[in-house]
Design brief:
With about 140 residues, this protein is of the alpha+beta class. About 20% of the residues lie in helices and about 30% in strands. The strands form two sheets. It has a four-stranded mixed sheet, covered by helices on one side. Its EC number is 3.5.-.-.
């Protein structure tokens, strides 16, 4: 059973490329994931120099973290995507890659896509921050 989540695009605001301006959650518990990075289980960078490959690893890591919290992509209520670039085509490619991934349903909610100068790990080009609504009692 999923939490009751309502996604709204007010008519007075601009059209979006798939996300919603407002997400309302009627749930008592949330999971706040740490920024998911393009590192494999051994801590090695995946997709050096490749934004899209790194987006794929970030999506895979986020799916694992969501599952550990008892959540799925459709339970995500907020996402922030950080991309090392100031070029719109690069940001758009990362957005498209994430939306095409198994994590894609997470990005129909309130989402922010940011171009940044640098991220924490050497060679890191993409990071993803998610918040999900949880149902049921705490484990």
């Amino acid at each position: 059973m999923s939490a009751k989540i309502t996604r709204i695009n007010p008519a007075e605001l601009h059209q979006t490329p798939g996300y919603h301006h407002v997400t309302i959650v009627e749930a008592g518990r949330t999971a706040h994931l740490a920024g998911q990075c393009p590192l494999d289980a051994a801590g090695q960078l995946v997709g050096e120099g490749d934004h899209v490959a790194q987006a794929g690893q970030v999506a895979a890591n986020a799916l694992t973290a969501l599952a550990a919290a008892g959540a799925a992509p459709q339970d995500v209520v907020r996402s922030v995507i950080y991309v090392v670039s100031d070029e719109r085509p690069v940001l758009a490619a990362v957005w498209a890659a994430l939306n095409a991934s198994p994590l894609g349903p997470a990005f129909s909610t309130a989402s922010t896509l940011l171009g940044v100068a640098q991220l924490g790990f050497t060679g890191q080009l993409v990071e993803l921050d998610l918040t999900a609504a949880l149902t049921g009692p705490a484990a």
